[in-house]
Amino acid sequence: MVEVQDKSMAEEMEEKLRNLRVDDEEDDEGPEEGEIVEESEETRSSMGNPAKSLVTKHPLEHSWTFWFDNPSARSKDVPWGNSIRSIYTFSTVEDFWSIYNNIHHPSKLAVGADFHCFKNKIEPKWEDPVCANGGKWTMNFPRVKSDTSWLYTLLAMIGEQFDYGDEICGAVVNVRGKQDKICIWTKNAANEAAQVSIGKQWKDFLDYNDPMGFIFHEDAKKFDKNVKNKYTV
Ligand code: MGP
Question: Basic and acidic residues bias: where (predicted)?
């Protein structure tokens, strides 16, 4: 299980986020899905000027959207997904922290809530064309013990810490009666090497030591509660 070690990992990730553009500028091969292409002159010129960089926003590689599914807004009479709402899209380090610092973390959410952070324009649904052939890794936590892991998962994703980051659609935290779950959704479930790499790296980043399983959305759609893991790390 994950222990909250100290604040150094979050600080380290934030530092990496701040440096992201400097590292990436050298090997830019053109925009990818969700990639932010605009970069102001102001951003470029502030790189060597610490005073100015305090007031300049630092762009992320991708823009991301938070989505919330409020359990009290759900109804049995409407299809699954009707109550999911997009909350906020961010594309800079600073905007991430301003939204993150002003929203409830998993321990404060109601049982049944789902909170998602997905690359912009990818909906957190099996039906989204980018997710359709994908799957998900799932970590389990005791109730109200997932806040730090949720933050570290977000920082690892938006800070592009995964070797197969392009494979990632986003992450969701599911608040349930007995436990919290955090899942990372990916695009091509059949690509075993990519999924296993993401799973192993994610466990390392969070210092998560329990076995963790990957299921294909195709299998989840069969609504079989005993759906089998395709991969385990
Ligand atoms: P869940 O919330 O992902 O699983 O899906 P959990 O947490 O194991 O189950 P819970 O009962 O504790 O909430 C629960 C159910 O929601 C699924 O069995 C589907 O009926 C529906 N569902 C979930 N997702 C992610 C989707 C989706 O992307 N599309 C559709 N159509 N239904 C979904």
Answer: 1-22
Residue for token pair 């799957």? 135
Count how many Cα atoms sit within 13 Å of the Cα of residue 179 in the half-sphere of its side chain. 9
Query: Among 76, 80, 109, 178, which residue has the most ligand 1 atoms within 8 Å of its CB, making it the best to mutate?
Result: 80
| Measured CA angle at 110 (ends 130, 150), to 5 deg | 50
β-strand partners of 90:
64
Which residue's CA is minimally distant from atom 4 of ligand 1? Answer: 174
Convert the pLDDT of each residue in 8-64 to its tens digit: 555 666 565 555 443 444 444 555 555 554 545 554 555 566 666 567 999 999 999
Starting at the edge strand found earlier in the chain, the sheet holding 114-119 runs 84-92, 59-69, 114-119, 168-175, 179-186, 135-142, 213-216, 231-232
- The angle subtended at Cα 158 by Cα 204 and Cα 205, nearest 5°, is 10
Q: Outline where 25-146 has alpha helix (H).
A: 41-46, 50-53, 93-100
Q: How open is the CA angle 38-125-188, to the nearest 5 degrees?
A: 75
pLDDT tens sequence across 185-210 = 999 999 999 999 999 999 999 999 99
CA angle 106, 108, 114 (to 5 degrees): 45
